[in-house]
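input
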Amino acid sequence: MPTETNLFENLPAKLIACIVIVALLMLGAAGLILPLIPGLLFLALAAVIAAKVSPSFERTLRQNPTLSGYLDRTDGFMALPLGEKIRVACLLGVKMLIDGIAWVVTGVAKLIRAAERL
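output
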């Protein structure tokens, strides 16, 4: 069984990861335009997968405290049984969605306060 450090060392695994990343980026971009798709969630998932493929990208993401927390939560993910993987993925997705909504609400509140000052 491969560990997380060597999970993406072979070429087919890297190609599949790249295809998944591109698909998630496209869904994320569509989600930023269409209100029915949670764009930030898909962009965050693409970032987490890209961090597992590229150590330099992971170091860059770990500089952000929020993204570092997501990466910490995905450590050891591949060693979990399938049921636990599904549970963790769903919970992480819900957390990302809630964090994204909180981020948008905070931004809108700042814009409203700035507009009121004018």
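quick obs: The chain is about 75% helix and 0% strand.
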